[in-house]
Design goal:
By secondary structure, the chain is mostly helical. It has one domain: Farnesyl Diphosphate Synthase (Orthogonal Bundle), CATH 1.10.600. Helix content is about 70%, strand content about 0%. It contains 13 helices and no strands. The chain has helices at about 5-20, 20-25, 30-55, 60-70, 80-90, 95-110, 115-140, 145-165, 165-170, 180-185, 195-215, 220-240, 255-265. Helix 8 (about 145-165) runs parallel beside helix 12 (about 220-240). It is globular, with a radius of gyration of 18 Å.
């Protein structure tokens, strides 16, 4: 007999394909038995992130519901319920989920980022934790050993997002670069940010190398994660091709280029 429609799963699939096009491409390489759960997990993180980004008054309570579930309380929100269901199959790392909520609360508070160490901590909380949780879904004989690489890959992707979205974030009154780095290079205005971007790209590339080195530790989804890593990393190469921020605007890698990079990375 066919399974009844699952509206939350349908929403999760649609959200991933609509909002995270690069990640959605990589998800096609995931084994069927884990792919839908990755969509569900993405819906949790995306929902909470959007509530925070848009200043939704429900954000604080929805974060609190996840924090309470992590501490042992029954789930009382959709996000907590989804996490509880996933936890029954994968034993999610609750410490990572709590750290994710801390990162979201930092965004809610508008906590400034002064140093590269603070930027690393921010990137771990909002994205490295996602990598750690993904590693739990994909499995490993050595999850403790896989965690640093999984966190590094998430952090690399977050640093890439920051560089891609500099001008968009500025227009929204947000700066996610470390103030000490801005001060060191004097300016990050269009046409004056090449030295700063070279520095930040080097830092992101180092994290990609660490993250990619840990992919063989995963049980499943290795091709998908390698493809996702290389597609995201290609944004850095696009920044370089476009002259290190010579012109303002969001950096976009053409879809045909992403597909080429994904196929090459996945060994297809």
């Amino acid at each position: 007999m066919s399974q009844p429609p699952d509206p939350i799963l349908a929403e999760a699939r649609d959200t991933t394909r609509r909002v995270a096009r690069t990640f959605s491409l990589a998800c096609r390489l995931l084994p069927r038995e884990v792919r839908d759960d990755v969509y569900r997990l993405y819906l949790v993180f995306r929902t909470l992130d959007d509530l925070v980004d848009f200043g939704d008054p429900r954000a604080d309570d929805r974060l609190a519901a996840v924090e309470e579930w992590c501490a042992g309380a029954p789930p009382r929100s959709r996000e907590a319920q989804l996490l509880a269901e996933l936890d029954s199959r994968y034993a999610l790392p609750r410490d990572a989920l709590i750290d994710f909520c801390r990162g979201m609360r930092g965004d809610l508070a508008g906590t400034p980022i002064y140093t590269e160490d603070e930027l690393n901590e921010y990137c771990y909380r909002v994205a490295g934790t996602v990598g750690v949780t993904m590693a739990a879904l994909l499995g490993s004989d050595d999850l403790d050993g896989a965690r640093p690489s999984a966190a590094a890959l998430g952090m690399a992707m977050q640093r890439t997002n920051i560089l891609r979205d500099i001008d968009e974030d500025l227009a929204n009154g947000r700066i996610y670069l470390a103030q000490e780095t801005i001060d060191r290079y004097g300016s990050f205005a269009p046409g004056q940010r090449a030295a700063l971007l070279r520095d930040q790209i080097d830092r992101a590339d180092a994290l990609y190398r660490e993250g990619i080195a840990g992919i063989p530790l995963l049980h499943t989804g290795r091709r998908a994660i390698r493809a996702a890593a290389q597609m995201y990393r290609e944004i850095l190469r696009q920044i370089e091709r476009e002259g290190y921020g010579r012109h303002a605007g969001r950096v976009v890698v053409p879809r045909s280029r992403k597909v080429f990079v994904a196929v090459r990375a996945a060994g297809m």
